[in-house]
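Subject: Protein record for review, amino acid sequence with backbone structure tokens
Why sent: The fold of this protein is of interest and is recorded here as tokens.
Enclosed: The protein record, placed directly beneath this head.
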Amino acid sequence: MAVATASRRTAVPNRLTHGRLPKWAPWTILIGCWAVMSAIVGLVGAASGAAGFDIALAIFLGQILFLVAIWVIAYLVEGGRQAKDRFVTGLVATAFVIALLPLVSLAYTVVVNGAARFDVAFFTESMRNVVGEGGGALHAIVGTLIITGLAALISVPVGLLTAVYLVEYGRGWLARAITFFVDVMTGIPSIVAGLFAFAMFALITGNAGYRSGIGGAIALSLLMIPVVVRSSEEMLRIVPNELREASYALGVPKYATILRIVIPTAIAGIATGVTIAIARVIGETAPLLIVAGFTTSMNYDPFSGRMSTLPVFVYTQYMNPGADLAAYTERAWAGALVLILIVMVLNLVARLIAKLFAPKTGR
């Protein structure tokens, strides 16, 4: 009798574990919904004669189908309560995917259109004496690296020293004034920075048509400095005061504490902020078009002559095409792809620096 009673008890299902979808089920349903909607969007686009595949629309419709599918399947397998939970979870994930759709669509479009000219010639040739097919963006890539490097060389010391002053020394009206003007500079339109740099060099040199790479670097530095100041200031403020007090207790002067304790502790965040500032200005077009100008030839001297950059190269190729429209458009898309890849590499470098120089918390 006891054995029969025990067997009946074990036959009763556990309500906490019975009827649960496996962990891989939501991901499988999601991928399946994306695949189904991609096929439908592709067939409809081919039937209507659309130029290309709309990946953003396919992902969006796939997410909507996923919400319906996950609720129905969870309701049939797990019951109404779990179905509601999975529906809300899917709704949050759908909101996140929708927020990423512009980025996904942009990246997909640039890669598809820029792959046609992503070749060796594009990275080894300039546009000198090229009016049709061929040519490359070597002169623009070199100009971008030189101008952005000079802008970083100007902005990083100024921004970091300003942040150190605001955090470690700044008190009273001067610190408040610096903070106010940094906030104002954050909202300055980029074209205003270009006009300022152009007017400054025109007054200094007396040449109303002055163009050079150093002028573009000055314009970009005006946009970089407030970003560097803000990011560095936040990183320096989160350094624990206990570290400073321990250093002072050992008799270390304040300047040495800042150099050996505060900055090394915050160096990971500072490096990330600097990289973000560089990525912010590397794609600026208006100030460089005004003060750096445009050329189809190589120019390694930022202090003399016009210097081309990738953003200006993309703009001129797209807005001023020659007789062969397709060749100019392909070069513009390829230049945009290279610019995105440079920004991506900068962000990866920032993450690597943050990981390498982050303070070790373990013993």
Summary: The two ends are 60 Å apart (CA to CA).
